[in-house]
Amino acid sequence: MMDQAQSLRNLMSSKTVQAPKSEPRSAKFITITSGKGGVGKSNFTLNFALALQRLGRKVLVFDADIGMANIDVLMGVRSKFNLSHLLSGEKQINEIIEKGAGSLPYIAGGSGLTSLFSLSDKDLIYFTDQIQKVATDMDYILFDTGAGLSKETLQFIMSADECIVVTTPEPTSITDAYALIKVVHGMEEDVSFKLVVNRAESEKEAVQTSDKIRLVTSRFLNLEIPLLGFVSDDSHVSQSVKKQVPFSIYSPGCIASKDIQNLAQRYMVAPNASPEGTLTGIKGFMQKWLKRTK
């Protein structure tokens, strides 16, 4: 029986998905994760996506947190469809993409995520084809993964173009962030990391927190990880969670909202940033995905 890698090679060379001489653009795939839960990862993902959207970029959020999917809850919306409706063949991908706060497109994970990691060859080809349909129309696809070192989270991290690790100044959060980076780097050295410090009392504390992680990754892993930015500890954030409204919409003038917008702008113009769509894109994402499911 044809293995999944061969199936994908056939898919990518078939006439139905063969690229023309001018390779079509593809979204940049970014995983957002954390070493432990409770650091505000999903809230960061949501507001980072909205900030990129305000800068004129097309962004899709994919809730990839198995068992703890809550992007829709943070936006105060109820999802009619999720990934399971796509994988079962009930819906096409454009039909399960819903609009949340700020008209932000997102895909709810739900129970469908568990079956995503054990697809048959036929279903995997179908999934790839569906993802390709939206990847060519987006600038960024953000995967809000589960916290920690689950098999599923690791697979998303090692398949994407880039991984943003969210931490807080708390010692346990710093330790767990380093542990995650260490494990991932040990399995796949080519993963590109960036750090975000959430709930920082000041820029100085954010830099100090980042330096603690960067020092050990440089010394023990020979890995340089840039600090992308930070989000201040702001009471408006917890208020917005209770109201189920993203803080950048709930209080656009608050310090956390200014921080997230500055962070998004910095991401767009960072000297080492690759333009959206120029890294692995959908083909590379699925090829690396298959490498982890063989």
Jot down its keywords.
ATP binding, 294 residues, 8 strands, nucleotide-binding, 14 helices, ParA/MinD_ATPase, alpha/beta, Iron-sulfur cluster carrier protein, Rossmann fold, ATP-binding
Description of the molecule:
The chain contains 14 helices and 8 strands. By secondary structure, it is of the alpha/beta class. The protein has one domain (24-293): Rossmann fold (3-Layer(aba) Sandwich). Strands 3-4-2-5-1-6-7-8 form an 8-stranded mixed beta sheet, with helices on both faces. The longest helix has 19 residues, at 203-221. The radius of gyration is 18 Å and the shape is globular. The model is unreliable at 12-21 and 274-279 (pLDDT under 50).
